[in-house]
Amino acid sequence: MKRILCLTLLLMGYATAFAQKVEMADTMRSEGKIYVVIGTIAIIFIGLAIYLFSIDRRLTRIEKQMD
Q: Is the pTM of this model over 0.90?
């Protein structure tokens, strides 16, 4: 019961945080700059994913050589 209560309060906190109106985001959206921000974040995440997959492949190769 205690876990459910904590989870409910946490979700309600997130809901109120996202319900707020952010003026900076509205300004960036109206000027079209928000797409530059989203594109930059997407490029960074894609780069990190590629880097992590390449490290995973190298580690798998090294582990196979150790056996």
A: no
